Amino acid sequence: MQQHDASTLHYDFRLEVDGVLKSWAVPKGPSTDPRERRLAIPTEDHPLDYADFEGVIPEGQYGAGTVVVWDRGTYENVTEKDGEIRPMAEALKQGHALFRLDGEKISGGYALQRIETGEDESWLLVKMKDDAADARRKPTSTEPQSVLTGRDLGEVAADDGDAEASS
């Protein structure tokens, strides 16, 4: 999951599915409160090596802005149909996927539910009620640092600007 300060600040939520990163822009970021539903707008698939990208995307390029790796980890697909785990690609195609995240900041069960199709396709990212649910915790505001480098968006932007100035 990447925090991305582009035209608007959002979180890029990504799941590895069939060799690519399926991606959604989540404007408010993930919640640990099962009562909160977070809008998730699908974006283009990304290559797997993009998961560790941290830096500044130059103006004029798609997604221009500063990016930090806000969280990372693994997930387990738990979407069932007729007592068997449905492949994640199929679950997403059907518009409903259940999974358990094991990240450094975010963990436990989550659901992605498609609520609109077509040009305005949109989804909801919802925390499931489980041991990792915590309505009081606000990781998007209290834990802004990168899990890779410990830097926040401002530090990444400043460091990238320093690197450009010295080259």
Walk me through what this model shows.
The protein is mainly β. It has one domain (2-160). It contains 3 helices and 12 strands; from the N terminus they run βββββββββαβββαα. The radius of gyration is 16 Å and the shape is globular.
Q: Assign an overall shape.
A: globular
Uncertain ranges = 163-167
Structural class: mainly beta
Question: What is the overall pLDDT average?
Answer: 93
Oligomer: single chain
Distance between the termini: 30 Å
How many domains is the backbone divided into?
1
The helix fraction, in percent, is 10-25%
Give the spatial strand order of the biggest sheet.
5-6-1-2-3-4-12-11-10-7
Radius of gyration over C-alpha positions, nearest whole angstrom? 16 Å
How many H/I helices?
Answer: 3
- The total of beta strands comes to 12
Order of SSEs, N→C? EEEEEEEEEHEEEHH
* Main sheet overview: 10 strands, antiparallel
Beta percentage is 35-45%
Brief description of this entry?
It is built from three helices and twelve strands; from the N terminus they run E-E-E-E-E-E-E-E-E-H-E-E-E-H-H.
